[in-house]
Design a protein that fits this description.
heterodimer, A: about 110 residues, 6-stranded mixed beta sheet, B: mainly beta, 7-stranded mixed beta sheet, 4-stranded antiparallel beta sheet, about 50% strand, globular
């Protein structure tokens, strides 16, 4: 199984700052089939990024994704108040289609 | 607009079974696969499985294989997830989520762009 390790566990930042979230895969992810989701308390997850770097429909351009080998990064430029949430990466290249344990972005 | 509406909360005793439904609307149901994802209280997301709504082919996570069955009813645009031999650690919110890629012949899931509202299943004696 592909294990996704997200870091840091918690990121404490102020609105307007940049958030950099990491997701490292234990082995190669086929065709960069990696997605990022945002989840707020009591809500279902929301797709942000698919294919490692493609923004989903309606996602603001302050969200971007990138990949380098087995390392994937979600960057949020100029944090808005609504961006404080938990973020999960998921690989959908190889079964089982595992999620990382999440990074919480909290207000400093 | 695309919507996935799930059935209501359930309370079950250990050893029982539960079936969660997910009724889709706003798109052609049998053109997109459906994922099932669960989240234990205060924990992260766990992928449980996927079903092709066109072929009925399924993929299940190993830790629920043998206890889970995912099905669809195309006449009502509804997906179902049955989990048997429930244990306390099956207590979780269960989500259905649609593949973002329209592909009737898909054999694996895509990223999930629309999600149901979640169904809390509590397993307790």
């Amino acid at each position: 199984d592909i294990v996704l390790t997200q870091s840091p566990g918690t990121l404490s930042l102020s609105p307007g700052e940049r958030a950099t979230l990491s997701c490292r895969a234990s082995q190669s992810v086929r065709s960069s089939y990696l997605a990022w989701y945002q989840q707020k308390p009591g809500q279902a997850p929301r797709l942000l990024i698919y294919g490692a770097s493609n923004r989903a429909t309606g996602i603001p351009d302050r969200f971007s994704g990138s990949a380098s080998g087995t390392d994937f990064t979600l960057t949020i430029n100029r944090l808005e108040p609504e961006d404080f949430a938990v973020y999960y990466c998921q690989q959908y290249g190889s079964s089982p289609f595992t999620f990382g344990h999440g990074t919480k972005v909290e207000i400093k | 607009q695309v919507q996935l509406v799930q059935s209501g909360a359930e309370v079950k005793e250990p050893g029982a079974s539960v079936t969660v439904s997910c009724k889709a609307s706003g798109y052609t149901f049998n053109s997109y696969g459906i994922n099932w994802v669960r989240q234990a209280p205060g924990q992260g997301l766990e992928w449980m499985g996927w079903i092709s709504t066109y072929t009925g082919n399924t993929k299940y996570a190993q830790n629920v294989q043998g206890r889970v069955t995912m099905t669809t009813d195309t006449s009502t645009s509804t997906a179902y997830m049955e989990l048997r031999s429930l244990r306390s650690d099956d207590t979780a919110v269960y989500y259905c989520a649609r593949d973002m890629v329209r592909n009737q012949l898909a054999v694996v899931p895509a990223a999930a762009d629309y999600w149901g509202q979640g169904t809390l299943v509590t397993v307790s004696s």
